[in-house]
Structures are given as structure tokens and as C-alpha cells.
Specification:
Layout: H1 4-12, H2 17-20, H3 23-31, H4 59-69, H5 73-91
């Protein structure tokens, strides 16, 4: 079985299908997956994240988190924007 969709069908066939499956059943499904293909090396370079894309109120926070955590700007920017969006959604 080299069809990942069949494994998904197996896992969602009942709410507890994965929990009730034996290790050998799960391994049989997982071992038949195809090997991942390597990523292409000829992908174009992606420009760095521009802080100007963020609201002024979030820029200092994102810069601070980025410096302290030693991560790309994108990581803190995405989390801050999604947190802001989530808080607005929760307000209704």
C-alpha cells in the first residue's frame, strides 16, 4: 500500500481506530509510504522579512523577541500578528 490516503482512511475510519490498532498494523501502514523526494536546490532566494509590513505598535516587540530568541524576524512577526488577530476574534 503506497497510498497515503489509505492510511488516512484507516486512521479516521473510527474515532479510536489508531488507538485500537496493533503496533504491527500501524507499522505495516507506515512502512509502505514512499520515500520523501529531495527538495529542489534551484528554488529562488526569498527576501528577508521587512519590519515595515508590521503595525508600528508591534515592531519593537518583534525586534526584541527576535534579538533575545535569536530567530528570524518572520517567526516573532507571525506569532504577534496571529495573536492580535486571535484576540480580536475572541472579542467578537
Amino acid at each position: 500500500m503506497n497510498d497515503p490516503a489509505k492510511l488516512v482512511d484507516f486512521l479516521i475510519s473510527s474515532p479510536n481506530s489508531y488507538a485500537n490498532a496493533t503496533v504491527s498494523e500501524i507499522e505495516a501502514h507506515l512502512n509502505n509510504w514512499p520515500m520523501p523526494e529531495p527538495l529542489r536546490a534551484d528554488l529562488p532566494a526569498v527576501p528577508g522579512f521587512d519590519l515595515k509590513l508590521l503595525p508600528n505598535a508591534l515592531r519593537p516587540l518583534v525586534e526584541d523577541v527576535t534579538e533575545r530568541m535569536q530567530t528570524p524576524l518572520d517567526f516573532a512577526a507571525v506569532v504577534s500578528v496571529l495573536s492580535l488577530a486571535g484576540s480580536r476574534i475572541a472579542e467578537g
